[in-house]
Amino acid sequence: MAVDGDERIEAFWRGLGLPGLIDVHTHFMPERVLAKVWAYFDAAGPLVGRAWPIAYRHEEDERLAVLRGFGVRAFTSMVYPHKPGMAQWLNSWAADFAARTPDCLRTATFFPEAGAEEYVRAELSDGARVFKAHVQVGAYDPGDARLDGVWGALAEAGMPVVVHCGSGPAPGKHTGPEPIGRLLARHPRLRLVVAHMGMPEYTDFLDLAERYEGVLLDTTMAFTDFAERAAPFPRTERGRLADLGDRILFGSDFPNIPYGYAHALEALARLELGDDWLRGVCYGNAGRLFGI
């Protein structure tokens, strides 16, 4: 069943003269894991705290068809572990998913545990295109000594790492700009994609992007009505969005969003930063990053 606004998506990107969209933050994962994620949102768990209806609750094949129907030309399968011994299993699933889903950028993940550097290097050798790190759900310090070799390998490879490190929707022990700032001081060549624009610490993460040329930000959920009610983006920072326009990437959190996909795009347009900015955010910047 179509969600309100779905019919406007193609007109959005065609109006910008784009061949489609690139979405760097979508969730495809093993079905039993996704079911648990959805159950958490359905129960408005403690990190959510309010109603969060899943807009695109479909079987995997239908979810893929819906995303492709929107005109999304490339996307990710953001997987993330919450305990030791889980990352390699998720990586195996994600590799298989990418092999049977050629428009998916092969995604991998890691956790602070023995052997993490070895399996991350194996993923790099085997064709991973992007990694996901979830500091909040994983409840780990990104500066954990067991990850030092992991970050070094990722920096050396120039591998994009989408990292949920902001304190939204609820702060964690290791969320916020300080742990990531310490990490970047140690590994300044890291190519980190700060998820959700670093919500709600937008300003601090923009500061890090200005300080480190490898830091990018994804727009996932930011600027939407849903996010603005809880963590409004400061109007005074809009100029910095323009200045950093070549390092901002479109992300949606599909299918786990409580509104239509079109709204995420239209929320970007109402920032009034111009069509060139939108073209870069919605396609061009990720196209260069991933060689699409």
Order of helices and strands: HEHHEHEEHEHHEHEHEHHEHH
Structural class: alpha/beta
Proportion of helical residues: 40-55%
Anisotropy-based shape: globular
- Weakly predicted, low-confidence segments: none
Main sheet specs: 6 strands, parallel
The gyration radius over C-alpha positions equals 18 Å
- Give the strand tally: 9
Mean pLDDT: 96
Residue fraction in strands: 5-15%
**Helix tally?**
13
How many angstroms does the end-to-end distance come to? 30 Å
Give the neighbour order of strands across the main sheet.
Answer: 4-5-6-7-8-9
Short description:
The protein has helices at 9-15, 31-42, 60-69, 87-99, 116-126, 135-138, 148-157, 177-186, 202-211, 225-230, 238-243, 261-269, 275-290, and strands at 21-22, 72-76, 104-105, 107-109, 130-134, 160-164, 191-194, 216-218, 248-249.
Protein described:
There is one protein chain. With 292 residues, the chain is α/β, with parallel strands linked by helices. It is built from 13 helices and 9 strands. It has helices spanning 9-15, 31-42, 60-69, 87-99, 116-126, 135-138, 148-157, 177-186, 202-211, 225-230, 238-243, 261-269, 275-290; strands spanning 21-22, 72-76, 104-105, 107-109, 130-134, 160-164, 191-194, 216-218, 248-249. A 6-stranded parallel β-sheet has the order 4-5-6-7-8-9. The protein has a 3-stranded parallel β-sheet with strand order 1-2-3. Helix 5 links the parallel strand 4 (107-109) and strand 5. The two termini are 30 Å apart.
